[in-house]
Amino acid sequence: MKKLFWFTTGIAAGLAVAKQLRENPEAKAAFDDAAKRARAIGESFTTGFRERESELKRTSGTAKVAAKKAPAAKTASKKPAAKKPISKKPAVKKTVAKPSAK
Q1: Is residue 21 a contact partner of residue 27, using CB atoms and an 8 Å limit?
Q2: Is the pLDDT reported for residue 11 higher than 80?
Q3: Does residue 23 carry a pLDDT above 80?
Q4: How far apart are CA 15 and CA 9, in angstroms?
Q5: What band does 73 get if pLDDT is binned at 50, 70 and 90?
Q6: Between the ranges 12-21, 66-75, 89-98, where is the mean pLDDT highest?
Q7: What does the domain layout of the chain look like in residue ranges?
Q8: Integer Cα distance of 20 and 26 in angstroms
Q9: Within 10 Å of residue 32's Cβ, how many Cβ atoms?
Q10: Fewest beta carbons within 10 Å, which of 46, 50, 54, 92?
């Protein structure tokens, strides 16, 4: 029931905002400005992400070349996994019935 309530509340709020945007040019201008700023921020993040990704690709390419030139290090042999100790069953406490006060 909670989900249905919040779903219908969201629809009602969306309809109210849409009505305000249709009837009020100032609200529409404010919304358009906010949308424009959000797009600009998104584009900045995307540009920064792509630049950083290309930097990482360039550096990983040089790291691969250096790794090919360096001799391979010997890997240590793996030890067998340690066995877990057998767990003991928890002790069961016996409760003593308390005499009831009359």
Answers
A1: yes
A2: yes
A3: yes
A4: 10
A5: low
A6: 12-21
A7: 25-70
A8: 9
A9: 11
A10: 92
**SS3 of the chain:** CHHHHHHHHHHHHHHHHHHHHHHCHHHHHHHHHHHHHHHHHHHHHHHHHHHHHHHHHHHHHHHHHHHHHCCCCCCCCCCCCCCCCCCCCCCCCCCCCCCCCC
Residues whose CB is less than 8 angstroms from the CB of residue 27 and which lie 6 or more positions away in sequence, other chains included: 20, 21
Structure tokens at 13: 């709020």
Please report, as a single letter, which amino acid is at residue 50. R
pLDDT at 42: 97
What's the token pair of residue 35?
């949308």
Amino acid sitting at position 44? S
Q: What is the pLDDT of residue 93?
A: 66
